[in-house]
Amino acid sequence: MEHPNLDYIKEISGGNEEFEKKFLNIIQTEFPKEKDEYMENLESQNLDESAKIVHKIKHKLGILGLQQGYRLAIKYEEDLKYGDTKLQGQFHEVLHTVEQFILKIA
């Protein structure tokens, strides 16, 4: 399983630590809210709204270096639009990995 990292953030920051901190703060603030919103919509069987939130989350996965997670999110987002949740378990594993990473870097 791949692990989140800060390589992309460090690359685009050009060594600007203030930028890195602000970027990380955005991820640390937005990700938990988006995950909760996703879970609420999923539990309510509102799969279209779940797909919209997966769309937001997938970009954070890419930023955190989770290329496989990003590709999974693309597929899962499309599947949700058609009522297919078969990738839910795998996607939740990726969400858990990101949660643990965010807690570690906080």
Describe this structure in words.
The chain is mainly α and 106 residues long. It is 79% helix and 0% strand. The longest helix is centred in the N-terminal third of the chain and has 27 residues, at 17-43.
Layout of strands and helices, then pairs:
Elements (H helix, E strand, L loop, with lengths): L6 H7 L3 H27 L3 H17 L3 H15 L6 H18 L1
Helix pairs in contact: 2-3, 3-4, 4-5
- Could you give the order of the helices and strands? HHHHH
Strand content: under 5%
Which runs of at least 5 residues are low in confidence (pLDDT < 50)? none
Biggest pleated sheet: none
Helix content range: over 70%
Distance between the termini: 22 Å
Q: Which shape, going by the Cα principal axes?
A: elongated
Mean pLDDT: 96
- Roughly how many Å is the radius of gyration? 14 Å
Helical segment count: 5
* Annotation, overall tally of beta strands: 0
Structural class: mainly alpha
Provide a short characterization of the protein structure:
With 106 residues, this protein is an all-alpha fold. It has 5 helices and no strands. Helix 3 packs antiparallel against helix 4 (67-81).
Characteristic terms for this protein:
106 residues, elongated, mainly alpha, 79% helix
